[in-house]
Amino acid sequence: MPQDKFIEDLSNEERHLEDYKELLPGVIEETVTTVKATIDEAIEVLKKNNPHFRNIPFAELKNNKDFQDALKEYMQKNPPTPPTLEILKSIVPVNHIKPNNKLAKKMTKDIISEGEIGLIVSGKNAKKEVFTKVMLDYDDKYVQFSGREKYKPYDQEVYDGVVTLFVANESLFRTEGMLFTPAMVYRAMNGLTESENVSPSALELVAKSLDKSRFIKTTIDYTEEAKLYNKDVKEALFDGYLLNAEKVTAKVNEKEQEVYKLYRKPILYEYAQISGQILTVPMKLLNTKSKVNSTEDVIIIRGYLLRQIEWLKNEKSNRNENITYKGIYEELEILKLTPDDIAYRKKTAKVRNHVKAILDEWIEQTYIKKYDEYKEKNIIKGVTITV
Known about the structure:
Layout: H1 3-12, H2 17-23, H3 32-49, H4 51-54, H5 58-61, H6 65-77, E1 95-99, H7 102-106, E2 117-120, E3 131-138, H8 140-146, H9 153-168, H10 170-176, E4 178-180, H11 182-190, H12 200-214, E5 216-221, H13 223-229, E6 237-241, E7 245-252, E8 255-262, H14 267-275, E9 278-282, H15 296-313, E10 322-324, H16 325-331, H17 342-364, E11 370-376, E12 379-386
Antiparallel strand pairs: 1-9, 2-3, 3-5, 4-8, 5-6, 7-8, 10-12, 11-12
């Protein structure tokens, strides 16, 4: 048979995923496309080299023991390898996005590995309390190499960076999936442009945080909450990982490197969409480098201030205009160990300077009108914000 005719006949054969599972059980897992392509190549080679196989219809061939043995031998010698993905595609975000419901606020409060918790999601004046049940725990694989680490405010900022990239690239995600690097996430956390470099230490910190979110198993039973918006809902449940992504190989600037591929909408963002509790602020607000460098602490402080000020700006909010320094100290886990703790005084003075530098930048950007420090019994307690 001429080669062209053979290839035409081969390509016209009806093959389904179940066929490949029958041929090589256990091989087909997440790399279906790669495995399928490799088996197709193997079938072509085996049929070309063995006229007996060539004349047997595929429906019968897949159950032929001689063919199965030959195929397994070929696959052992030529195992499927993940393809190198093409260069990253990404749209630079215009806005920064933060899920801001009760779960997002609770994430940093030691709820990982604490069993099932109930979040009261009904309003203060509701006749009946409505609960959403949440359970988060680390995958055993993560615990083996990193232990049960606390989910910290910096992890929340990294997660918001991924959410920001997702929202900007959602249409691309639907058709091609979403690839991203720690550098892209860091830039989305700090309002940077595509060309601005990120230090290796900053990238390492972001990557560690991404891996943490990838291994937090997450179950959210929000059935009762969903019924507040649609009485016909029977069951509403999220069950997966905090960040459903894996590391893959991609070509970036003609070099192969490990990047992340996102497989579903970030679960905290998807859940926050139900109640509409999502903050959207201009990306430029995160770029405060003209006033203060984006250290880990500054990133946390900036995120905290954004949530507080957006709460203050909400028309339905009755929040007062004061933001306490104590709340920021607690966010950064700065503790006073003794009544005369010199290290504590130095750290908190530095934090106050960071706060004022960020707010000075936001005044210039017209995000707020002004701020003033306020005192209680001659002790500086926080800042009063005028929006």
